[in-house]
Design a protein that fits this description.
The protein contains 13 helices and no strands. By secondary structure, it is mainly α. It has two domains: 65 residues, no CATH class; 126 residues, Endonuclease III, domain 1, CATH 1.10.340. The mean pLDDT is 96.
Length: 202
């Protein structure tokens, strides 16, 4: 099987981004970008991917799809939703961090992460600004960029440590440009998500 065939098989079998799995219909518009930010915060705690995804579904089910909707919720409502998703060890701190992130996004970028994107001069600038949000560090900023490259093509190709490990396990190139050349640009975010799953599933 060629490397291109392997990439196509990975897309078919595992090519669902984590945003898609969590119910986020990612587009380059304010609400889904905010939802991806929340998902990134959930991923940034030492907790399983499946729990983070399930918890994001609870946040969406509660109607907290925009910064203002989340800010209109109470701390206890957020704790309860996090608990329903299985996010129990970090529910209280995360309930606070979600509110702080929504408030920062409202105050600094008027609720629109596209303004953050515009403010950043390059990919490194995007990651740096993302790290101003509570709990999002270098790893979290890379998770966000890995997912958002689906709608921010100037950030492609995003290949982090987990993607490279998954690519190596699958017999694919670990070089970002060589890996990206195996699929259409719009599908690269799906391929990286598949390779992360390869790495996590060992």
């Amino acid at each position: 099987m060629s490397q291109r065939d392997t990439a196509e098989e990975l897309l078919r079998e595992h090519g669902t981004t984590y945003a898609q799995e969590a119910g986020v219909r990612l587009r380059d518009t304010p609400a889904p970008l905010f939802q991806l930010l929340c998902l990134t915060q959930l991923f940034s705690a030492p907790i399983g991917a499946s729990v983070a995804v399930a918890t994001m579904r609870e946040l969406l089910a509660a109607g907290w799809t925009t910064p203002q909707h989340l800010l209109d919720s109470t701390w206890q409502e957020r704790v309860d939703a996090l608990g329903r998703g299985g996010y129990r060890r970090y529910d209280e701190s995360t309930a606070t961090h979600l509110e702080e992130a929504a408030q920062l996004l409202q105050d600094r970028w008027r609720g629109d992460l596209r303004r953050l994107h515009d403010e950043a001069e390059d990919e490194e600038g995007v990651r740096s600004l993302l790290q101003e949000f509570p709990r999002i560090g270098p790893t979290g900023s890379r998770i966000f960029c890995r997912e958002v490259q689906a709608v921010w093509p100037d950030l492609r190709p995003q290949v982090d440590v987990r993607v490279r490990k998954g690519a190596e396990a699958a017999g694919l190139p670990t070089d970002a440009d060589e890996l990206a050349a195996l699929v259409h640009g719009d599908e690269f975010a799906r391929l990286t998500a598949a390779l992360v799953r390869v790495d996590l599933d060992d």
